[in-house]
Structure formats: structure tokens, C-alpha cells
Amino acid sequence: MKDISLIIITGLSGAGKSTAVRAFEDMGFFVVDNLPPALVSKFVELTRQVKGQPYRYALVMDMRGGRFFDQMQEALDYLQQQKVDYRILFLEAADEVLVRRFKETRRRHPLAGGGTVLDGIRRERAKLEELRGRAHRIIDTSSLKPAELKEEIFRAFQPEEEGARLSITVMSFGYKYGIPLDADLVIDVRFLPNPFYIKELRPLTGNDPEVQEYVVSREETKKFLDKFLDLITFLIPEYIKEGKTSLTIAIGCTGGQHRSVTLTNRLAELLADRGDKSYRVEVRHRDIQREKGREI
Predict the structure, then answer these.
(1) Is GTP-binding one of the keywords (predicted)?
(2) Which residues are annotated as a binding site?
(3) Among 130, 157, 184, which residue terminates a domain?
């Protein structure tokens, strides 16, 4: 089927689905919030009665539906049988972040029952495990501001008439703050000499020329970049061939301030310099401002 473009927005309560709704509305999608999965077949029938150009739709289906949500599997099976072109966007965040968000908004978790917010989060995470495994795109919103989440969604789902078919995000991060859950490829560059131990470089970041020179001038860095770029350029057309529309490459060092930032910037430059119009590249430094100068 190519007569409907459908995005299913789901995930953990408090992970940013309201922000996602606004993002899809800004992109011109017709959005239905909290649709019971049992009504998906009726919705598809209705959309197929619309004359003219095919619409783009987004449906929010989550645990607020209570017992109705148990029919999600049947709804997805129906979409496959009808050859509906759909994608699942799954939003999640760390437990402590979700707890804080619920406390700030004073909302009740839909699965908390008589227990705590954390009890509800853990029940919901377990119930959504299978659906998460079927998701086409998973975004961890733990460290994202609403505007940053909207930008992530724009990059992943905004239709393009021409040009890039793959959106590549090259992200730096610090292992001391955890591996990004939404990364497709993760590479550890802690094998490189650490600028933190150079007094003059410690307060700087990989965005500063002095740190860049220290990291990139190393022979092992040059070899690494050559080999890693080789791997990425091999993978890109294969991912595109398989229908992948977004790729997140996460490069990590200890604190996400020096080595990973330098190499993230450099890899993005090398990819952009190739002039390949089949993809576009964005850079994101997740942890660059956290405990600046205190990398261990």
C-alpha cells in the first residue's frame, strides 16, 4: 500500500509524546491522540475515503488506553495485512527522569495503581517491551529539551521531496553519563590520549582548536578515522537500501568533553566533504557542558 503514510507514536508515559504530537502537527500531519488500537481498522477505512492527495497521519497509542491497549498486536497485524505504510516511533527515558517529570507536573502514572510512580513506570516498561522491539525509531528523551526532541523528530520524519534519504546524527557522549539508548552505532575512543591531563587543555573542549590539534595530530587518531570512515561509507548505502531513514553514530570518551567532541566534529566534516547527496549530517554534543573540566 502506498495510499497512506502513518506514524504510530507510543512509548513510556512522561517520555515526551505531547511534544511529539506538536512536532508532527507542525510538519502537517493529521494527529489523533489516545486512539484505542481496536479503532485502527476503522481509521484506515476512513482515510481511504479521502479524495485527492494522500494525507499523512500520526496516531498516539499508549497505556492510557488501559485494557483497550491490549489489542495493539492485532492492530499492527491488521496494518501489515492491509499493506499500510506505517512506522512506529517509541519514546523512552530513564526511570529517574520519568519520576522527576511526574513529580514536577503532579500527574498520576496510568499504571501506578496504589503504588508509587516508579512502580507504574516499571510495570509500563515491562508491558511495552515487545512493542519497543518492533519500533522503527527509538528516541531516548532523558537529556533532551522539548525543542531538541522536536528537532530529532523533524530530522527523522520530515518528508523531503528531493535530496537526502538518510539523516545521520553524529553524537559525542561521556561514558560516565551512560551510553545513548537511541544510538545505532557506538564507538569507544577512550584508547586515545586524554587532553584532560594537559593542564592548558583541561578547561577547553573538542570545539577548541588546541584540543583538536592535540587529538587529531596523533598517528593512532588518523588511522582510526581512516578505518572508521571506511566502515561508515560502506554501511550508508546498505542502510539506505534497507529503507533506513535515520542513523545515529555515538562516539564516546570518559566525560564527553574532549576526545569524543573532537572526533564527532571531524567525522561529520569528513562525511559532509564527500558531497554525497543521499544523506545529510547533523552534529550533537550530548555531555559537553556536564561537569566541564572534571573528566576522570
Answers:
(1) yes
(2) 11-18, 62-65
(3) 157
